[in-house]
Structure formats: C-alpha cells, structure tokens
Amino acid sequence: MKILVYGTGGVGGYFGGRLAQAGHDVTFIARNESLKAIRENGLIVKSVNGDFTIKPAKATDDISEIESPDLVIFGLKSWQIKDAAKHLKSIITEETMVLPLQNGADNMEKLQEVLPKKNVLAGFCRIYSKKEAPGVINHFQFDPEIIFGELDNEKSKRVLKLKEIFNNSGFKGIVPDDVHKAIWKKFSFIATVSGLGGLTRVSIGKMWEDDYLQGILKKTGLEIQAIAQAKGVDFNDEDVAQLYQFIGNQGITATASTQRDIMAGRPSELGNFNGYIVEQGKKLGVDTPVNEFIYRALLPMEKEARRS
Ligand SMILES: NC(=O)C1=CN([C@@H]2O[C@H](COP(=O)(O)OP(=O)(O)OC[C@H]3O[C@@H](n4cnc5c(N)ncnc54)[C@H](OP(=O)(O)O)[C@@H]3O)[C@@H](O)[C@H]2O)C=CC1
Ligand SMILES: CC(C)(CO)C(=O)C(=O)O
Known about the structure:
The chain has helices at residues 10-21, 32-41, 81-88, 107-112, 157-167, 179-200, 204-209, 211-230, 237-248, 257-263, 274-284, 289-307; strands spanning 2-6, 25-29, 43-47, 52-54, 58-60, 71-74, 97-100, 122-133, 136-149, 172-174. By secondary structure, the chain is of the alpha/beta class. The protein folds into 2 domains: 2-177, Rossmann fold (3-Layer(aba) Sandwich), CATH 3.40.50.720; 180-307, N-(1-d-carboxylethyl)-l-norvaline Dehydrogenase, domain 2, CATH 1.10.1040.10. The protein has a 5-stranded parallel β-sheet. Strands 3, 4, 8, 9 and 10 form a 5-stranded mixed β-sheet that branches. Strand 3 and strand 4 (52-54) form a beta hairpin. The longest helix has 22 residues, at 179-200. NADPH dihydro-nicotinamide-adenine-dinucleotide phosphate (NDP) binds at residues 7-12, 29-32, 34, 75-78, 80, 101-103, 125, 127-131, 257-258, 269. It catalyses: (R)-pantoate + NADP(+) = 2-dehydropantoate + NADPH + H(+). It comes from Zunongwangia mangrovi. This is 2-dehydropantoate 2-reductase.
C-alpha cells in the first residue's frame, strides 16, 4: 500500500515507521532539521516494543515529488490539518483514504470542509511517543493502537483491509461499532486533563489526589458530556464514570502532550480542546463555565506562543 504520512513527529513517525518496517511504501512529509536528519540517517524509532531504523526512508517537503497515495495519515496537530488537506488536494484521488490521528472531536469535520466526504475516515490513536531529536522518535509507553472507521460506521471493505494491515504492522488496528463515541471518549479525557494540567502545572495524578482539583476535573468532564449529548453522541453516565476512573488511574507522573506543550510555551491544542467545547456550547446553547475559565485563562499565553 502507498502511504503518505504528513507530519513525522511522535505519532506520524511511529505509526509511519511501523508501516514502512512491515514493507509498505511509506513517504514521510517532514521539514527543516527533521527532514535533513531523516535523509542522512534514516528514521530512527526507539520503542519499548523494540527499536528500529527505516533507512533509507522516503522523506520530502515537496508534494510535487509524491505519487497519489492509497492512504494519508496525518501526524500533525489538530489546528494544522485543514490547511494540510488543502495542500494535498491535488494528489488525492477518489480512492485515497485520509485518516486523522489527532486528538480532538472535529478532525474529520475539518477535513470534510476541504476534501470529498468519501475520502475521509474518522480516527484517533493511543500511544505515548515524542520526537526526541530531529529524525528520532521515542515511543516510551503503551501498546500503540489506531482506532478508526467509516464516518457512518459501516464495516466497509477498505476499513477491514486497513485494520488487517495495521494488525500486521506491529500495532493494533481497532474498528469500533461507534467510532464517534470512541472519539468522544478519548477526547473527554484529553480535553479534561490537558487544559487544567496546563494551568496547574502538575501531573494528572497530582490533580486527581487534590479534592478541589478533582472536582474541577469532574465538572469539566460533565460539560464535555453535555456537549457530546447535544451533538447526538451517545456519551452516557457510564462513559462519564469510566472517564473518572481512567483519570484516577493515571500515574502520579503522567501528563498529556498538550499539557506539556502549554507548559513549555509551545503552540498547543487548547483551542481544539477547551476552546472547541466553549465554541460548541455557545452554538448549542449549553453552558460551559469551567471549560471557559480554563480556556480564557490560558488563551493569552497561547497567543504569545503563536507570536513567537
Ligand atoms: N504524542 C503522543 O503521545 C500522542 C499525540 N496524539 C495527538 O497526535 C497529534 C500529533 O501529535 P504529536 O505527534 O505528539 O506531535 P509532534 O509535534 O511530535 O509531531 C508533529 C509533527 O508535524 C510536523 N510538522 C508540523 N508542520 C509541518 C509542516 N508544515 N510540514 C511538515 N511537517 C510539519 C512537526 O515538525 P517539526 O518537528 O519540524 O516541528 C512535527 O514533527 C496531536 O493531535 C496529538 O494530540 C495522540 C495520542 C498520543
Ligand atoms: C495521553 C495520551 C498519551 C494518550 O494517548 C495522549 O493522547 C496525548 O498525550 O496526547
């Protein structure tokens, strides 16, 4: 399968690397120092499941060099995928599948603003990984998974084929019965812990063991549930109970990637998480005061990060 990975960081570098290792024809879009390093040394993946290097790795920053792919995997941040889809439009054919792996609840909607609906799959991933250095990816925790499906949850031939390819490439491919519910379950976790984590600057475990902060985490989650339900997603009280349990089970050192971006003063997915909840609340007539406080408190810093 011809696969294009746009964004060769923690997520794109890991999953793209595993697909290349399994023998697929993978092209990586990378830039600057990362592109240079991948061209010189290959793509180096350090992984708790076994290190490997893809050398030579096909890497470029010029889409005119790229043949039309069967599958595009986005490894960028959520706020970048709409522009990236515009950038790729000329090489996307009727058959190309486009799979977003970003955290966030509306990635497939953003892609459909630019690409025909039939190209777009819904999805996300579970992994703990990061770009350690240019051309070097470090997967440091968790057995990685890609969870995905058709927008209408049909168990189509292409989705089942992709699942098989993923399962034969050293990570799990999961096609749930309701991919939208699965997306919201992950989103509710990441949006709940990332913003407050960025504000308090302590780990998820430390927030949870503080009664007051645990209460704020719970209120954030309840507002997210209200938005999900207003959008017609089956996010019920049992899902909320599982969310609390999941947050409570995070280790005392655990942080999310967006929390780390906020703390480091890098552009973050704040707008795609708490900001999205606030925006949807206004649109749907649902009050979201806790998400709004977190969002507004962090927004000046976010603007600063984007200026530099
Ligand atoms: N990391 C994790 O453990 C997890 C992350 N996620 C989600 O996955 C998504 C990606 O996150 P993550 O992989 O951590 O992010 P990274 O920052 O590690 O990776 C993003 C990559 O995209 C590259 N990039 C950005 N703009 C361009 C461009 N114009 N051209 C080429 N390359 C570009 C960056 O390059 P450069 O390095 O040069 O800036 C970077 O390597 C996010 O939505 C995140 O929330 C989900 C689950 C787990
Ligand atoms: C918490 C985690 C690692 C789970 O996959 C994640 O999604 C992130 O850090 O962005």
